């Protein structure tokens, strides 16, 4: 869609059609990410964050998600709101719970979100569930409460199951609460639900309080002004459609792309063009030889060869190894990605080497 969109002039009838396809692809991408989060295979980038700040930054979005007949109140009562988590994933939790609350209040109602500190507690009250988790500690409690239709007691134990939903076919995927559960667990937290049919529902999320009281500021990513280049790239991807698409992205910006379907073809191409290859872009799961093994083998010939790993799954051990001069040699980008995202990263890799 990105390539087709570039060829269309403003106002072209097909431009709207392309945007529709692009929007559908984004929704499919988001669905995939929610599945990965639930299965705990989504890339996780945790840092110390101020939960109150996350909620304050999300307030406008939450108000836009709920209906005008739903009142919204936020109580940032946690005096020590620092937790160790992934900001974007916590935002996903808030979005999913806000949408869930909205759908539970078709005739209007109230949505309340509150943070507070809990000291020296064990959120696992059930002694069977608490086995192995019985160490009391401090938590930041995030509570999301709606005054909606509530959840039937018979459904309470199933609401976090993937694809379980009480909504109609076109209204829900059954992944919203499953995703919330996956994120909370990945963050080392616990989640409980309390509901009274006809009166409302409360989701209680216990996130371990971080030791530090200072937010970790993520390093800024510089987006290159120009995405074009003339370097030579060895692209290794066994999925023909993905390889051809990425190759077209890069070729249209002036890069010389050598395509390989597997590690064997890549080794032959590299032997033929070793002095010209400036960057290896490879999938992780390749036939016969994994992408990281291929990169290691090629680097024996070219010690300064940079590698961009692309995959739908995170690397078990992200290979951020450096070269002899201490420079970074490996990067990672999770599929699916937009054309501009991979073009920007490729250009950044080359610019950093200059």
Describe this protein's structure.
With 354 residues, this protein is of the alpha/beta class. α4 (87-103) packs antiparallel against α5. It has three domains: 1-41; 44-123 and 133-208, Heat Shock Protein 90 (2-Layer Sandwich), CATH 3.30.565.10; 232-353, 3-Layer(aba) Sandwich (Rossmann fold). Strands 2-4-5-7-6 form a five-stranded mixed beta sheet. It is elongated, with a radius of gyration of 24 Å. Mean pLDDT is 80; it is low at 126-134. The protein is 35% helix and 23% strand.
Brief account:
With 354 residues, the chain is an alpha/beta fold.
The tally of domains stands at 3
Name the CATH homologous superfamily of the largest domain.
Histidine kinase-like ATPase, C-terminal domain
**Structure class:** alpha/beta
Spatial shape: elongated
Could you state the order of secondary-structure elements as H and E? HHEHEEHEEHEEEHEHEHEEH
Roughly how many Å is the radius of gyration? Answer: 24 Å
Using the coordinates shown, work out and report the CATH topology of the largest domain.
Heat Shock Protein 90
Mean pLDDT across all residues, rounded? 80
CATH class descriptor name of the largest domain:
Alpha Beta
Q: Order of strands across the biggest sheet?
A: 2-4-5-7-6
Strand content: 15-25%
Largest β sheet strand count, sense and barrel closure? 5 strands, mixed
Share of helix, binned: 25-40%
Count every beta strand, where a strand is a DSSP E run of 2 or more residues.
Answer: 12
CATH architecture of the largest domain: 2-Layer Sandwich
Determine the number of helices (DSSP H or I, runs of at least 4 residues): 9
- End-to-end CA span: 32 Å
- Low-pLDDT segments: 126-134
